[in-house]
Design brief:
The protein is an all-beta fold. It has strands at about 1-5, 10, 15-25, 30-40, 45-50, 55-60, 65-70, 75-80, 90-100, 105-110, 110-115. It is built from no helices and eleven strands. Strands 2, 4, 5, 6, 9, 10 and 11 form a seven-stranded mixed β-sheet that branches.
Length: about 120
């Protein structure tokens, strides 16, 4: 599976962006999908995750109420809607596919830069 993340950019604080992660190579429906982010000088952190069928969703406390993850298996795409963005949301955002039941992520996208100005 190849994952292609897109939708990043420069936005003012309080603004919104929607990230997309398109999968190709094989169907990604069996996989739970997640978004991670990594800011300069910081470790990569989990942002949000969604089960393969969609009903189970998880978001980090730092983005709860502002970010929403969703997926469209017919389009092999997972989304991250980001509202009320803050400068501390600035990071490279990565999508990943969970490929084992123990929670390992076997496929990663290349990342898309999100920059929030104050």
């Amino acid at each position: 599976v190849q994952l292609q993340a897109s939708g990043g950019g420069l936005v003012q604080a309080g603004g919104s962006l929607r990230l997309s992660c398109a999968a190709s190579g094989r169907a990604f429906a069996p996989y739970a999908m997640s978004w991670f982010r990594q800011a300069p000088g910081k470790e990569r952190e989990f942002v949000a995750g969604i089960s393969w069928s969609g009903p189970s969703k998880y978001t980090a406390d730092s983005v709860k109420g502002r970010f929403t993850i969703s997926r469209d298996n017919a389009k092999n795409t997972v989304y991250l809607q980001m509202n009320s963005l803050k400068p501390e949301d600035t990071a490279v955002y990565y999508c990943a596919a969970q490929t084992t039941s123990s929670g390992d992520y076997g496929y990663w996208g290349q990342g898309t830069q999100v920059t929030v100005s104050s």
